[in-house]
């Protein structure tokens, strides 16, 4: 899974742009090439119900309160051809749920990559663990909001073995 490789998280001038996106994407590409037809790409979309706590969220981040059609939410160009599957667009941090299980199968073993380690990757990993899936987080194929937040998120996910395993791109590829 490639979680949210979008302009909003990649652009240096975005409030949510990760300074580590380009380096992580090099490894995302390596993993996508290795996994071929089994790659799934997600996008975070600003379509959540504003009458819930999401209303407060968008009040705190007004730059992101735009129509879903805004180019800010597009995949970065190099991510557009990573998957043969349609992009899974969800208005949630965590992407794990029935839509993912329908593609990968219940109790699957998945490799998680993407942005940001300390938000959408973490939220997806914990939901996958709760759902009974095994997830390997390719740490060097994830980009955090800061180096400290990336490390903290990896630490938290590392507390969930055997459902969650922290690894790296080379180990994941050789272990296939």
From TrEMBL:
Residues 2-158 form the Isochorismatase-like domain. Keywords: Hydrolase. This is Isochorismatase family protein. Gene3D superfamilies: Isochorismatase-like (3.40.50.850). Pfam families: Isochorismatase. GO terms for molecular function: hydrolase activity. It comes from Microbacterium bovistercoris. It comes from the Bacteria.
């Amino acid at each position: 899974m490639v979680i949210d490789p979008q302009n909003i998280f990649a652009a240096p001038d975005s409030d949510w742009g990760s300074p580590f996106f380009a380096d992580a994407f090099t490894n995302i590409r390596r993993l996508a090439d290795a996994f071929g037809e089994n790659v799934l790409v997600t996008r975070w979309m600003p379509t959540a119900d504003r009458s819930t706590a999401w209303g407060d969220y968008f009040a705190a981040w007004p730059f992101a309160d735009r129509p879903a059609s805004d180019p800010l939410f597009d995949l970065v160009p190099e991510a557009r051809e990573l998957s043969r599957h349609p992009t899974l667009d969800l208005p949630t941090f965590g992407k794990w749920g029935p839509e993912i299980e329908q593609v990968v199968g219940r109790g699957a073993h998945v490799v998680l990559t993407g942005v940001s380690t300390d938000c959408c990757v973490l939220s997806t990993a914990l939901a996958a663990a709760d759902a009974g899936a095994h997830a390997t987080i390719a740490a060097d194929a994830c980009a955090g909001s800061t180096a400290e937040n990336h490390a903290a998120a990896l630490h938290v996910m590392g507390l969930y073995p055997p459902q969650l395993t922290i690894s790296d791109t080379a180990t994941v590829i050789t272990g296939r």
